[in-house]
Write the structure tokens for this entry.
Amino acid sequence: MSTFLPLADTYGRVHRDLRVSLTDRCNLRCTYCMPSDFADWLPSETLLTTDELMLVIEVATSLGITGVRLTGGEPTLRPDIVDIVRRINELPARPEISVTTNGIRLVDLAQPLRDAGLKRVNVSLDTLDRDRFKALTYRDRFDDVIAGLRAAVAAGLTPVKVNAVLMRGVNDDEAITLVQRAIDEGWRLRFIEQMPLDAGGQWSRGEMIKADEIFTMLSEKWTLTPVASRGSAPAEEFSIDGSDVTVGIIASVSKPFCAACDRLRLTADGQLRNCLFARDELDLRVALRDESLSEDERRAEVERRLRLVVADKLPGHGINDPSFIQPARPMSAIGG
Ligand code: SAM
Ligand code: SF4
């Protein structure tokens, strides 16, 4: 009988969370993620097929991965996303499935995704102003996102989490209105510090709005009290005025949570990454497409590569080191 060995790295971090990018394509062009004229798309023949994806997810869940988050690019652009969710839900390990999306297609997809086994959804929304949304994303889709958020709540994909990135001089005057709207609509809002992952290389440490500044802005209106330990979750959650309504702040840059990181990433073209900021990737696609391997050998090779990429994980992302170099791929191609 074989002994179960979890995906533990050399620092003792056991990996339980797999982020799977379903596509690098997107129907928005958020300025902090992709330039408006971005055209450096992955060639379609390099994208993993659904059967290839499923094999990786199946092996990963047999090694202790308990959460699978589908992301991108915009994951809802993958035509068979509902089928993918259903197939993951039918795996023997029954991982918890979540999706990170810009929300535009949720009007049509929230209920089918829920019926297929989706538990939770994270929707990105950085502004409540329609014109500003258009300027920030180069697309006039604000109303679709709001309708998508309402469809997610109605389908029971709750708590619906909303991710917002505040940028100086762009939307930093909306911290309080975003939280107030979240309270009114029943969303759970989390602010994410802007990270150096944009395809245009525009990120600036000096300009970035840090977690402490967000806390100060919100404290002008509410009393924020930290709630219980966050485990491996990236957001530090605060109760608002002592109620059970919370707001989260993800301080990826100013207070990195690498010591508790349990995440692995699979890009849409089948590359494994042990960190958003990793400079190296490990090629799984080559193993998935190696016709000299039997089905069992292919599984064994996927397992071997998953263990290798975990074993290679560094203690931290190094954003604050003077030698930090931004990864070559933008966030949209890594899978946020
Ligand atoms: N398209 C989907 C969406 O926008 O939710 C999923 C992919 S997107 C890359 C995932 C998350 O990454 C979003 O919440 C987005 O706001 C965030 N994101 C993208 N670029 C970022 C950056 N440079 N810094 C911080 N967050 C970023
Ligand atoms: Fe698209 Fe999401 Fe990137 Fe915005 S953050 S451009 S919605 S992938």
Notes: The chain has ten helices and twelve strands.
